[in-house]
Amino acid sequence: MVLIPAGVLGLPILLHQDQGSSNQEQPAEDWPTTVTAAGDDGRDRELSAVSPDPGGLVDTSALAAGDRIVVSGTGYDASQGIYVAICVIPDDPTTKPGPCLGGVPSQEGGQENTSGEIQWAPSNWINDDWGWKLFGARPYDDAATGTFTAYLEVVDPVGEGYDCTVDRCAIYTRNDHTALGDRVQDLYIPIAFAG
After folding, report:
1. Which of 64, 81, 140, 147 has its CB 3.0 to 4.6 Å from that of 74, i.e. a possible disulfide?
2. Which CATH number fits the domain that encloses residue 141?
């Protein structure tokens, strides 16, 4: 009986074929709150960051531990899960972003998140597969349009292997553990910490 769920969750990982690059161009402004990209998979994606306060803006050039950021995206491939977190920008765009503040979300069983439930965390896991929801993934808001909302709480910018007060860091989306080598959903909003 255990083999059936393991096969259902494991088979897509084994069969995944990388889709290429997100093709995000360097943002035109220094501290954007919205970026776009036309991926090699034919999808146009958009990533935005705002304050949780109604109509509020987030100053991406001066974050501090404890800040909260509402991150949203559209145009993503909902058949593939993503992580949303603040990560070190790699020198090589074909490399997985990271390390990330707070690491990746826990994948312990029994933590199912429901749509509309706000849980602030250093990283969010978005995955529409029913099996991964049982392990703590949040669902996409609308799978047809690849729309999601994530709720980031900024943690200490200095940790093992990273220092976002010195290293170039950004709010990132990237494919989850089921397609770690696939860079097509890597979009980022550059950030810095208040001095």
Report:
1. 147
2. 2.60.40.230
Q: Which of 101, 109, 166, 171 is nearest to 134 (CA)?
A: 109
Helices and strands (H and E) in the chain: how many: 2, 10
**Parallel, antiparallel, or unpaired for β 187-191 and 123-126?**
unpaired
| DSSP-assigned beta bridge partners for residue 142 | 147
CB 6 within 8 A of CB 167: no
Residue 6: is its pLDDT beyond 60?
no
- pLDDT tens track for 108-122: 544 444 555 688 999
Query: How far apart are alpha carbons 129 and 125 in whole angstroms?
Result: 12
> For the chain, how many structural domains are there in total?
1
Q: Is residue 10's pLDDT more than 60? A: no
